[in-house]
Amino acid sequence: MHVALTRGTTHWEDLWNEGRIRGVAIDSREVRPGDLYVAIRGRRCDGHAFIREAVARGAVCVVGEEDASSIDIPPGVPYVQVPSSRRAASALSNRAYGFPSRRLTVVGVTGTNGKTTCVHWLTHMLRSVGLRVGMLSSVSNETGLRTVPAELTTLEAPKLHHALREMVDAGCTHAVIEVSSHGIVQYRTSDVDFDLAIFTNLTREHLDFHGSMANYAAAKARLFSGLSSDKLGAVLNRDDPYADVMAESCVAPIITYGLHAGDVRGRVVETHGWHTRLSVQLPGGEEFEGILSHPGVYNVYNLLAVVAAAHALGLPADAIHGVMSTLPSVPGRMHVIRPERGPTVVVDYAHTPDALYQLLNTARQWTRGRVWLVFGGRGERDKGKRPEMGFIAASLADRVLVTMDNPYSEEPARIADEILSGARQVYGAQCDVVLDRAQAIEHAVLEASDGDVVVITGRGHESFQVIGALRLERTDEDMAREALRRRPGAGAI
């Protein structure tokens, strides 16, 4: 889709034709000489207020939604008014970086839970057969030219198309991208030419942004309605009730997966500790059996999604089967620390009611001892899920320590109280509040017995914690390992 430019079009087109536009930026602090600056109204500030700063840093053209007469534009700088700055940023970024997604086979992964794992596993599977694959996930971005920690689940449009361009320059043939509902609604992915899209599941999340589950589902569905009929298609979780919403406006071929129904069907043969033996049947009836070295039924679904996508991408069954047992651990996703002595510690990103429920159910199967849970609620996010998560925590964990996640500008004690309002509905719930996260992790690790499991959720791979204006550089894994070292008689970790 092309952007309709309503002012200054001729001069603006001249800049393109003369090669003077080198890139696109939506943050005035990140403008480089030769960039086109797109002013966007954000949640906290309005990009139109930073036009002079952008020009001072080298912006050669400005795009925005406001009328030119109402904003401060330096003389001689072309300004183009558009109906939607975000929509324009997507189309302009695509053009600025040479329409890179057209030169790649692009797979998008969306859903509430499992996106990151599916992106990492599919990337691993494609690379295992010799393909050059770029990856953009909420953990890291790998373009073939560089690997950097992720800023967002889905990059803003200028950085997204720039990353895709780097993949092309690095000789990649495929790209696997994590696609958030925010990214879809804010047009970050609107001009990415997706060849295949995966739907994992849909459970409560982001209702502070979307307002309702219907709106949330509709946002996700836009990824699938954007696939044309000549694309590889949509991979949908047949066991999830929202699969029908994703399929409703999708004209591309559809391949489904599931444990109860689907074109790609899984059957759990045996669960043993941290491993699952399962049988997988592909479309056409071909079947193989293998070991998934990652616990939990949700990881079985993640595997089936990846198998279905790999099949749609043309990987033969023997290649899929061969790599099944080698799928890597994903940072901050079911990351297990097994010390010689002391409790097993699990660090996970679970921050939705369903993810927490699935994680604690799985942890309960691992241990004959107690399940400890250290978790909190993220500030400035869907507050309605906090009591629900408190109820789940108190129902499934033996001991719960409610602590801080990333409270941002919210009062941490208030967030904890909202979680406890749900936990108190469980008779005999063992819940305490320890707001300092490091102290909460230390308390759980030191008090837990050798046969217990300590589950730490909410932050996963994140390397910093934001408390008001304070940013603490620390990971849950580091804090857990430090606490394990303090246990009397601690062995190797």
UniProtKB/TrEMBL annotation:
Residues 332-460 form the Mur ligase C-terminal domain. Residues 109-310 form the Mur ligase central domain. ATP binds at residues 111-117. The modification N6-carboxylysine is found at residue 220. UDP-N-acetyl-alpha-D-muramoyl-L-alanyl-D-glutamate binds at residues 28, 153-154, 180, 186, 188. It is an enzyme of class 6 (ligase). Its EC number is 6.3.2.-. Catalyzes the addition of an amino acid to the nucleotide precursor UDP-N-acetylmuramoyl-L-alanyl-D-glutamate (UMAG) in the biosynthesis of bacterial cell-wall peptidoglycan. This is UDP-N-acetylmuramyl-tripeptide synthetase. It comes from Alicyclobacillus mali. The gene is murE.
